[in-house]
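Researcher: I'd like a candidate sequence for this fold, 423 residues long. If you have to choose between options at a position, lean toward the conservative one.
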């Protein structure tokens, strides 16, 4: 009997300070359903942003819960009273400030009958959940970029590269429409995720493009859709619920070669995280488009058989990939500076020995077969070989090559995939 009486007594303020010490940043409250008595720790008063006297009075607890969570929390509480407790995470709303809290409630009854108690633990998890959300976003962005790079590593097709970039940005940023506009030899190459808008843009003058101004100025630009110069395209985008256009320049070695444009369903700018992701994509897109443009230029010059040597000088010196000319005997006849820099051999050393001498011993037979195949078929793509560095290291290169019959030489372009192999 004495035990039951003690269970119905609530600690007065200052009588049980050890409870606050025990729970610390986790708020604790106890409620006697029969008498209506309520006790809470100091952390509860901080979470509710109310004085203790107010909490013990007629505080509208459900009124503090975010309107979107209020009804389900009420239903969850009623169900918990029947089942013995509940665990949930919900939002508290104070003016415009939102707190995310995790709560555990258990129902206890006196063994000898008497009052029924509710005991609750309440803990703010706003920062924890925000950090978890950021971590998930970072992982999602990392995976999306890796998938984008994996899907474009073996292509020099501008359409494929731009389309992959568009879909990657659309997946991560959830934008309604993405476009990449590449400027090549006085004309626009357009890649957009929305086919209706793409068809409408094909009929407008290049100078009416929002992206055209970005290419001219080299500056990031933003405008409401209602200010888009072409009426047909403007009305089409408005019918799709688009409100704002953001266009970001894509540069390579100080030259603007493309623009990445986003059409958003809200009239807002990109936040810091979204802008950072777009900059990362633009960095990869820049290198890939530059190589693709150089590769297209190289193919054109090889087809025309004109100005090959002079044009190759430009491509050899500007390319960020490994470019070489190989004769049918398997000797380098020409290499770009990157070969010597990365492998550590001098240009003379590279040109005076067969290509196979610089391959990993286990890959030499594959190298011989690749040379024979490109001569026989005229082209080879995605050939992966390991090259020896003078320092003792190894470089993994993935190569596309084409045989030029009239000169009896092979033009090879290779990309360093060493880092991807390590991942």
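Model: Candidate sequence:
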């Amino acid at each position: 009997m004495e035990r039951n009486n003690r269970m119905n007594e609530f600690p007065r303020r200052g009588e049980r300070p050890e409870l606050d010490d025990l729970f610390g940043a986790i708020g604790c409250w106890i409620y006697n359903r029969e008498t209506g008595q309520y006790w809470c720790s100091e952390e509860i008063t901080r979470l509710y942003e109310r004085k203790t006297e107010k909490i013990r009075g007629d505080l509208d607890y459900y009124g503090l819960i975010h309107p979107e969570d209020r009804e389900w929390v009420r239903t969850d509480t009623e169900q918990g009273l029947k089942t013995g407790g509940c665990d949930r995470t919900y939002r508290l709303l104070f003016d415009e400030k939102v707190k995310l809290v995790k709560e555990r409630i258990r129902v206890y009854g006196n063994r000898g009958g008497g009052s029924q108690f509710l005991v609750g633990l309440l803990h703010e998890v706003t920062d924890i959940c925000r950090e978890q959300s950021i971590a998930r976003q970072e992982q999602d962005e990392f995976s999306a970029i890796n998938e984008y790079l994996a899907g474009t590593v073996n292509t020099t097709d501008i359409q494929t590269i731009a389309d992959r970039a568009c879909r990657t940005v659309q997946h991560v940023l959830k934008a309604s429409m993405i476009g990449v506009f590449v400027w090549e030899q006085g004309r626009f190459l357009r890649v957009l995720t929305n086919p209706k808008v793409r068809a409408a843009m094909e009929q407008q003058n290049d100078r009416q493009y929002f992206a055209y101004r970005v290419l001219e100025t080299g500056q990031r630009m933003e405008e409401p859709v209602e200010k888009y110069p072409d009426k047909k395209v403007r009305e089409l985008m408005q019918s799709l619920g688009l409100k704002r256009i953001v266009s970001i320049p894509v540069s390579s070695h100080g030259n603007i070669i493309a623009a990445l444009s986003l059409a958003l369903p809200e009239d807002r700018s990109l936040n810091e995280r979204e802008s950072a992701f777009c900059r990362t994509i633009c960095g990869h897109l820049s290198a890939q488009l530059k190589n693709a443009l150089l590769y297209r230029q190289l193919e054109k010059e090889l087809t025309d058989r004109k100005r090959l040597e002079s044009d190759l000088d430009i491509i050899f010196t500007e390319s960020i990939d490994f470019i070489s000319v190989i004769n049918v005997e398997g000797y380098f006849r020409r290499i770009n500076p990157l070969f010597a820099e990365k492998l550590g051999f001098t240009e003379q050393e590279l040109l005076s020995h067969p290509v196979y001498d610089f391959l990993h011993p286990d890959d030499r037979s594959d190298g011989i077969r690749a040379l024979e195949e490109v001569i026989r078929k005229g082209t080879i793509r995605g050939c992966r070989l390991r090259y020896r560095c003078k320092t003792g290291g190894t470089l993994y290169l993935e190569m596309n090559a084409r045989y030029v019959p009239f000169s009896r030489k092979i033009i090879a372009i290779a990309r360093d995939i060493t880092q991807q192999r390590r991942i």
